[in-house]
Amino acid sequence: MPSVMLRKREDGKLIFYVAKKDLEETIESLEFDSPDKWGGEVVLGDGSKYAFEILDAPPKIPLTLQAKRL
Amino acid sequence: MAAMTREETEALIQEVLEVYPEKARKDREKHLAVNDSSLEKANKCITSNRKSLPGVMTVRGCAYAGSKGVVWGPIKDMIHISHGPVGCGQYSRAGRRNYYVGTTGVNAFGTMNFTSDFKENDIVFGGDKKLSKIMLEIEQLFPLNKGISIQSECPIGLIGDDIEAVAKKATKETGKPVVPVRCEGFRGVSQSLGHHIANDAIRDWVLENRDGDDSFPTTPYDVAVIGDYNIGGDAWASRTLLEEMGLRVVAQWSGDGTLAEMEKTPKVKLNLIHCYRSMNYIARHMEEKYSIPWIEYNFFGPTKIAESLRKIAALFDDTIKAGAERVIARYTAEYEAVIAKYKPRLEGKRVMLYIGGLRPRHVIGAYEDLGMEVVGTGYEFGHNDDYDRTIKEMGNATLLYDDVTGYEFEEFVKRVQPDLIGSGIKEKYIFQKMGVPFRQMHSWDYSGPYHGYDGFAIFARDMDMTINNPCWKNIKAPWKNQVANDEAVKAVA
């Protein structure tokens, strides 16, 4: 369960950053991204997949979250 | 010598790798690459931030160097105790030339060495008592200090001293912040982890100190300069430009910086990151906790300065945007004169770099402004994200080397034959003896500042006086110079 820091890049893309792993990738797709449901499976720019817990509302970004490696 | 093609560079890397045993070759192969600026991600071509290979010469430092030497050391009004044996503190004392204003020993302590001077006894029985005693002594001798940081050296972690408990006790006694930093040298693969640990210590022990205290008057133009260590006065040369365009620099991290400045940083509107490698952690934290955006900038060479000033101004209103244009216009005549003077003397010269956290990519622009070309670059302790940013700055088919070994670097230089090498003190005399002009790019070879427009003039002068120094013609012993000998014989006959 790495803790992941999410931030928005200037072009609006979400950046997925894991300090411990030296991993900084863009998020290519997020399973749920609507006002009442957010989270689920994410696919990163390098093809690897992680999963966030599903939240009731989109969180305020930047934020540190726990993600599960799939 | 003409620029090398991709195939030639690849062949050179293979040739250099040939002397290694198979296992070592496999490992080192991943750290050497030919640049391909079309790539988006560096991890496709180069591996970085890995353990150095035992048995090769690496020039990396340790976590203590990253914490005490880089991040904490320049904070001038705090006392940084090198907790452990005396050597680590003494040999890293003042070598980085982090300039500051203040009276050393009274209200500023940058060039002094405070150490707990561990002896066998302290290793056997623990050093906590000694540490508390030191802090009382410091309070008596240097009452104007604003706080203390305890920079652990290797033995502290090995014997398991509880410096956090001592720090808490001392804070209670003196009422000043005492920050324990667990930066034992053996942690991590290079000084890079030391930066991270130091950033985390600032986050945990310093940054929150003024949360909820709004007595500090703020303006919409407050910024903090982060990751500028004022080497030879760099931060001052950067600060003047920012202030001239109308911004208010609240804090300097950490060159010529103070504890109060760091505590006030959460009140700023924008964090400006110069050394991304050593301080991006704290910027990311402030973005998350205090919603302060951060951007990277580059103050080496007029092209990059203008680019950065406009990029910073774009985040503010029109007065700042106009201010940025005014600053650029004001210095145009000055830097054009510098380029007109030195470009003809330096045009076409080729440079190889091997430095630390930001310069392998940041100084490329400054060399290009002088008509020079960077043909090889590498980081001692860079991570993937550093190389991501580098591949775009470098030309195609140039050399990239991560954590280069002494042998590899020498072989590369012999084959590429650059006109100038920019690296550190450990490389300096090897290459000078090989007859290659050399500049120390960690501490600006006792010169500086190199940041900002003022720094660019000094940078250009230094490069010129190194490359065009007449001594390089006399490097070879006269009797080994065959041509000269033949002519002399003819003259006698």
Question: What tags apply to this protein structure?
Answer:
heterodimer; A: 70 residues; mainly beta; six-stranded antiparallel beta barrel; B: 493 residues; alpha/beta; four-stranded parallel sheet; 21 helices; globular
Query: What share of the residues of chain B does DSSP label as strand, in percent?
Result: 5-15%
Uncertain segments of chain B of ≥5 residues (pLDDT<50)?
A: none
The structural class of chain A is: mainly beta
Bulk shape of chain B: globular
Give the N-terminus to C-terminus distance of chain A in angstroms. 10 Å
Helical content class of chain B: 40-55%
Span from first to last CA of chain B?
37 Å
Instruction: Please give the oligomerization state of what you see.
Output: heterodimer
Treating each run of at least 4 consecutive H or I residues as one helix, how many helices of chain A? 0
**Describe the biggest sheet of chain A?**
6 strands, antiparallel, barrel
Instruction: Please state the overall shape of chain A, judged from the principal axes of the Cα atoms.
Output: globular
Number of strands of chain B: 14
Largest interface, counted by CB within 8 Å of the partner chain's CB = A-B, 12 and 13 residues
Mean of residue pLDDT of chain B?
Answer: 93
Integer-rounded radius of gyration of chain B: 24 Å
Please give the largest β-sheet of chain B. Answer: 6 strands, mixed
